[in-house]
Every structure is written in C-alpha cells, then in structure tokens.
Amino acid sequence: MIDFTDSIAAIATAPGRGGIAIIRISGPDALSVAKSLITKRSTNNDAKDEQKSALSEGQSSSADLKPRYAYFKKFYDGDEVVDEGVLLYFKAPYSYTGEDVIELQGHGGNVVPQRLLSTVLKHKNVRQAEPGEFTRRAFLNGRMDLTAAEAVEDLISAGSESAAKAAMASLNGSFAERLNSLTERLTTLRVRIEACLDFPEEHEDFFDSGRAASEIDDLIKDAQEARTIANQGLKLNEGARIVLAGRPNAGKSSLLNALAGAERAIVTNIPGTTRDVLTVNIEIGGIPVTITDTAGIRDEPSDEIEAIGIRRALDELKQADLILLMVDSSKEASDAVDTLNHINTMFDNPQNILVVKSKQDLEPNAQTAALLSSAPLNQYPQVPTSTKQEGGLDELRNKLNEILGIIPSEGVFSARRRHLGELEETYEAILRARELIDFGDLVLTARELTIAQNHLGTITGKITSDDLLGKIFSTFCIGK
Q1: CB burial class (10 A; 0-12, 13-18, 19+) of residue 62?
Q2: Among 46, 214, 126, 178, CA closest to 460
C-alpha cells in the first residue's frame, strides 16, 4: 500500500539536455529537506562565514524561507556542492498538491538532476514518487476533482492544438461544472420524490407528476448533450486510427505521403513495394489521426517477407476506426471485391469503410467503373482522389471530416473512455426513470435517479475506489 502521508520527490521535467531541470518535493518534510540542502554541513566557522556571506548578498538564511519567494542557492550534499539554482517554497495548502512543496530549479542534463534527486532521497523521510502521485495527492487533498486531475495528463499528452484546448477546459472546470449542475438537479428531483414516499399525506406539497416528467425530459436532454461533447472530447484525446488497405500498387503509399505532406513511404510502379506497416500522425479538423499504410493484400504474395507484411496489415485492420479501401480507377481492379471480403472478415464494423477511387488524373478503366457502381462496392461511400492534381484530395478531406464527426472545438472538454461509459450509464438510468414516472412508481424512479447520480460521482471522484485511482494515475509521468 502507498503511504500518502509521507514526503515524496521526483524530477518534474523531461530527461535529456536542457537549460533547467526541476526537482519537486511534496509532504510534511519538504521544508526541512530544503533547509538541509542549502546548508553546507562543515565546521561551525565555515557555516557562520557562509551565513554572513549570504546575508551580505541580500539572500535569506536557510532558516528563513518565505513562501512564494525565489532564492538563488547552492545545493549541498554534506560539504559538496551538487548543483546551484532557484529554490521555491509553496506552503500548504496553497500548492499544487495541497501540501508543503519545494521546487529546486537546477541545471538540466542527464546526470546533474539525478545527482540532486539522489541527495534529496538520502533523507530518511523522503521517498521516490510513484507515477502521478503529485496529482493524486492534489485530488486527495481537494485541490482538484478527478476530471481536472485526468486533464493534467491529457494536457501533457495532447496531440493537437484542439486537444490541448479541450484538456485546458477540463482542467479549468468546464467538465466538472456541467456534471455538477446535472447532479444537483438530479438530487433536487430525487429529494422531492423521496419526500413524497416518506410523507405520503403531504404528497401534493412535494410532488407534481407532470412537472417531474418535464424535469426528467430536461435531464435526458442535458445528459445526451454531455455525452455528445464527451464523445468529441474522447476523439480529441485518443485520436482516430485510419488504415489504408487495398491491392498492391493501388496508390496507398502516394496517398499517405500526400496526407502527411512528406515522402514517408516508397512509391514505385512495382507491386509489393510496401512490405511492412508504416504509420504517420496528422491532424484532420483538429483531431489527431494516425494513418497506417499497409502491405497490399493479395492471396499469393511474392515471397515470405511480403506474406509477413500482409499478415501485419490484417492485424492493423482489426484496430482501425476507419478503413480506406484503395481502388486504382485507371486499371482493371476485378480483385477489389476479394480485398473487400478480406477486410470484412477482419473488421468488426464493416460500415466504417470508405472506398477511395485513386489516380483520377488518369484515363478511367471502364470495367473498374462498372465494378464500383455495382454490388457490393456501391454499398459503401466512394470518393475520387488524385495526388497529382491540385485540390485532388479536397473531397477526401471533407468526407473524413464528416465520418470522424468533427464539430467545432469551442465548448469541448477533454474526456476519456471511462467518462463516456459512465455518461452512457447515466443517460440510460434517466431514461428508465422517465418510463417509471409515467407508471407512477416513485420508489423505482428514485432508485434510477440515484444510480444516475452515482455514475456522475464516479466521473468527478465523489465516488471512488483505490483500484480506480491506481489505474488512472498509473498512466502519469513520475514527476506529475
């Protein structure tokens, strides 16, 4: 079990070359550790001379560190100077964690920060922080709710500007405010219903069935809206996975390079050039998208290496949010149906397939055109593309925006899959409450409203378990 009452320390900045590295210390012993670090442990005369020198330079002595003041200090391990830099003291509860916090801003690099951290950890009451433990303590000490705590990690790992804005919105409380408002209205309605059950003789004073039904309708609408925005926040947070599939030489690598804006894949007229999966990260409408180019799928690979590439391509299909089935419209493509059948055997949601008619700058093949306009290919949306013509990908980009469900990022907050799951449960519980109120069953109506409340409380952290917290904060970096 992790002890959250002791003091912890960690490097809070990324490893490697840099101008500054920050060591963060949090807990009841943070201040005493800081005073020890800036005090040279040598002869009494040396110590007195050092203190006089510090005071003559206008610096505070180690016994007089004021909160929120910056001090330039040497950091000692005994009588050895380990580093020098800025020391900041944040007194509880006005700190990130809600505890006493010390930040040591020293030199960057791979060695010096580790030496300084090792010196800090020599103190018997200080241990290495666990992943996410600083933010977990902030949550446990009431400095932020769970949506804001998770938004810290989302902000650090944001893959696009829109994702960063959504994470900052959650960090500033937009997500929590919406959930708290919904929870408060659920509570008010449930209290009225339960008052009817406790005081049946005062039923009319507490309850109006028509008004209650109308209030539940409003709750359904708000829960649906929260669910929609959370779903968009999830897309911004996790991104989407798009896989390019098709027969060899169908134009997959050319499309990947065009979307990436760089020559990432080798493009030749030789079928089977792509032997392995190749992945690039781009943005589409502000949503981070991972696009994967795969080996051309065919029943008879030319060699074992291509066969391995095809197997990996099929594995990628299983994880895709959207598959772009590439069909070269300038050549006979009778095997396109076979490729589609391969995809449908691997892909759980065959509706998320977009047929991309590549090489529209060339003369179209009549047989392929007839094939695309007949079953089964005509059952899927189709987009013409050309990587050679200006604007040849505009229609594809617009279609991807539509399929990914892109909405304006304003008002969107960062969300995770667990949030969306809890909101789904909340929405379903309120729907059941609406059906029950029409039957006049107030007991079960109140129970469903309570279930909805509990699911919302799990999102904000008002209802938590150690297992849930452990899972959430285990994804954080050590110094956060």
Answers
A1: buried
A2: 178
